Amino acid sequence: MYYAELLLVGLVWGCTYALMALGLTLVYGLLRILHVAQATVFTLGAYVGLLVANYSGSLALAFAAAALAAGALGPLIYRLIYQPILEKPPSVALVASIGVLIAMEDGFRLIFGPYGLSFTHNSWFTTPVSFAGLTLNLVQVWIVLAAVLLLTAFAVFASRTRAGVAWRATVSDPAIAESFGVGVIGVRYLNFLIASILAGVAGVLVGLLNNLVEPGMGGLISYKGLAIIVLGGLGNVPGTLVASLLLGVLESFGTVLLDKVMDRDAISFLFLTLILMVRPQGLLGKAR
Amino acid sequence: MMLEGRNLAIAFGGVHAVAGVDLRVAQGELVGLIGPNGAGKTTLLRLLTGVLTPDSGSVQFEGRDVTRMPIHRRAQLGIVLTHQIVRPFRDMTLLDNVMVAAAANLTRRPWRAMVSLDAQPARERARALLARVGIADGADRIARSSPLGYLKRMQVARALALDPRLLLLDEPLAGLNYAEAARFADLIAELNADGVTIVLIEHNLGEVTRTVRRLVVLHNGAVLAEGVPRDVMERLDVRDAYLGVGAAHA
Amino acid sequence: MDYYLSVATFAALNVILALGLNLISGFCGQVSLGHAAFYGLGAYAAALCSVAGLPFPIALLAGVLAAGAFGILAGFAALRVREDFLAIVTMGVGFLFIGIVRKQQWLGAEMGIAKIPSPLDKWGYAALAIGAAVGMLLLSLHVRRSWMGRAFDAVAQDEDAARSIGIDVAGYKIAAFFIGTAAAGLAGGIYAHMAQLVVPDAFNFIQSITVLAMVVIGGVGSTLGVVTGAVLLTLMPEMFRFINDYKLLAYGVLLLAVMRFSPDGLAGLLSRLLRRGSA
Asked: How many CB pairs (< 8 A) connect A and C?
């Protein structure tokens, strides 16, 4: 039973990672940029969601607001930061992204204070959900639901809609896509829009999960997200999902088994490093 | 016999890129390796230089088995490759590009390199080599803004700087116009006359048949024919291989 | 006076860190986002030795060797993965270091190692740090001019081409990591004795990014640029007290500005201005 619970908790974490990592792999697949600044959008979503939730009492409104805010910021970051430096070597974009991340983290600290804010009515947090002898709270259930819903929606979008097909074409070969009349710039904005909305929603969910929204909450999940997309094979969406869940479960078991040796984050990165040493192209990636 | 590839074979995901090839090159030879697209020429060259390791077969160089030897060790032994798509050090001048190779004995070991400061001998040698390949005037041009003809010749100069025993050229004439290609082919012939053993891959059949002494034709990963250029090119099966696949360039 | 000595010492330590990273990333082209881990390794190793009663020079040496040994391991990682992947792996190394150290009771866990014996006074540390910084500066300049520097350059620009002209790319990468991390270890050892306390959080990702910022803003690959960057970023929060509160915001914005407008940093900017001035 105990192990089943660990597994479940791990899967929940894995779902939050998936929401974050999907955005990262989308951006990488399209632009070869490690979008560490995804953390910024995540945290903004969390703050906006919390403020709206506390003010209006409606979680639905909170999610909508978070998605809106995140969806606005993400493409803005692309336009202001990444677009001008697309031609430069990849490390330039990475360093710029890191710059955005630490600047914004500090910005959030200055605006909202360093100690974080809480939800005034976090009913989901306090609502237990039991099945098969295991108990989760409603936030955890919603996280899994959100992940499943959003990712399925994305899959449908990518394979069934015109915009989705255009997007996939652009990812696999921008030049050819362009010659077929696909507006590559539009696809890029769409890419960031989707990635950012996912991150913003994830931000609110994680805020609810911990009942705390703080300036640095996005950093670690963003770094781990990078580790995940590398493991899953850069630009490889199914691979990213598998790697996300795998990492979540590994952390869950790892924190219990290796409690005396290393902390949760170290476990993730140890796993990542070992895998990369054995398979430099990632778990499901193709050899470069 | 300087170089012997014996029964070399390698497959990629079910495709036998090279399937049992024997290749012998004697010292001082100028050998041309031709064949339609996909015949396995570049793969064979990569097996000889160490970019790829064969699934079976061996590569012997001057009596030593080099089949599994890493690239930089083979370069140190004297097997040097120039790439089909030129790979200069883009932010260095043409002179610097050759200089780094000219000081190969100094750059071999990091710790030795650390205590070596004298760049004069290497610089002079590099200048001489640039002159030898005809681009002395380009010495101070940055590689990234140099025309293809210069880069190709620089590549050869860089290879020569390593005192190669065996020079392997992967499509040296690719991308050059008619006049440039003819001049470059002449340069290759001159280098061979000076004593450098050369094996080259080429699609430019006109120039390669004019320049080399022996021709080896690859088709579907195996040797189809070899001999004196004129005899080889008149063979029906060679013509079929080219025209049948529809890939004749000339 | 004490205050100025402290600042000078920290500036010198940052110079050593930045020059070490510059050698790895600037000269040899290997991304490394976990440099603080080696700073920390040196600090912890030196601290353990001193607390155990070993003499100061031995402690410092232990710091250098501990950091360098792990640096060699990191170098091996750089043989397997490149660029983006290497960035993530080195970032991971940083998190691994902290994540493991935080849980080790024998290393003081979260509280770290305290009451480290301090054999020198403020002047002594300042002199030692500045001396080491000058040494590192001279070493950097020397390596740059030597054939090692040229070979590093070749490796940084095109590994495969470098291999094809006989350069032992693997050997150079490992050498770069060793020198750069050993320097960080030396800085760590000095820091440990000066502060008399080492805690895991002093060597976190933000610290790695701070060193990166010094290198990037100064100008990746430019020895003097990097020194300037290190000194500037150490002095600025001190000289303009109010900046201290916005330090990370300022770093972030600076990094962004540099990447956007002058990716080769202040050094690149300067050389462009000079060229335009003389044109």
From this structure: 133
